[in-house]
Amino acid sequence: RAKEEGRGRYVVFEAGMDEAVQQKVAIATDLRNALGGDSGLSVHYQPLIDLVSGRVTGFEALLRWAHPERGNIPPTVFIPIAESSHLICDLGYWVLRQAVMQAKQWLDAGAPPREIAVNISAAQIWNTDLVADVKSVLEETGFPPDLLCLELTESLLINLEENRVRSVLKALKALGVVLALDDFGTGFSSLGYLTQLPFDKLKIDRVFIDGSTESVRKAELLRGIIGLGQGLGMITVAEGAEKPEEVELLRKLGCDVVQGFIFARPTPADIALTFALQQDSVALMYAAQTTPDD
Ligand code: C2E
Ligand code: MG
Ligand code: MG
Ligand code: MG
Hints:
Blueprint: H1 2-36, E1 41-50, E2 56-67, E3 71-73, H2 75-84, H3 88-108, E4 115-119, H4 122-127, H5 130-141, E5 148-153, H6 163-175, E6 178-184, E7 201-204, H7 216-231, E8 235-239, H8 244-252, E9 257-259, H9 269-277, H10 282-290
Parallel strand pairs: 2-4, 4-5, 5-6, 6-7, 7-8, 8-9
Antiparallel strand pairs: 1-2, 1-9, 2-3
């Protein structure tokens, strides 16, 4: 009897596994089709704000997918699936080209020069000619290389002994683009690589901002990370500020740039255009918005 029960559970477990795997395969198939045509993929843009001037310094391009039947699927769900099914390379190239074309349009529409940041998956370094792709998108669009920022995560640095990562990053720097280390502090690689690789920016993960105004220890950790970035000559960017107190703390700690829902969520290009054209301080706009006037 015990054996039967065990067997039963085993079968149920297997069936559950199959379903999850099947779902992933289905999503990967739909994603492949979406890439080929007009099936709900789009790029949203989230402004980055300079903490001294309060002005928009740039935008991060973030992929969105409105699935025809399943509704909106967040990137935290479909990006890992794209990564495990090798779709991420085509997807990543598509986002890069869309985002740079969009940023060029804003420039042409009279917007002040602003950076466009694009997330790059490690697979794009390993399995594609990223340098050639970036070069061709810049040439095709005529977009200034120094306004393109590529965001890479620490997961990339696991295989640092291999020269490929080093040489690709070096070649990208030679093109004139900006390099950012994304989600800093959440990976598991050693800190040594920070002195060895040509990163211009340190993007501090949201987990270090969250709770920093309520805990002295968390605030000290944040201070340390910002100091580390500054000491190494990098621009520090805080991800995920949601409260005015967090913005104030980040400013006090000398962080350079902030990206967070407090200023703006990722939005479609037509709405982001308002931020792109904005000459004045967005921080003042925020202050004006929160002034109780009714
Ligand atoms: P990421 O590159 O670290 O992007 C920042 C994430 O933080 C975005 O999540 C953004 O919406 C979110 N965020 C910004 N401000 C706040 C805030 O104040 N509060 C909270 N709670 N969240 C905030 P999103 O758009 O869901 O993207 C998640 C991740 O998916 C990205 O993290 C990135 O790793 C990946 N991703 C998105 N688009 C692409 C892409 O085109 N290519 C690749 N390879 N990855 C992408
Ligand atoms: Mg990013
Ligand atoms: Mg991040
Ligand atoms: Mg991330």
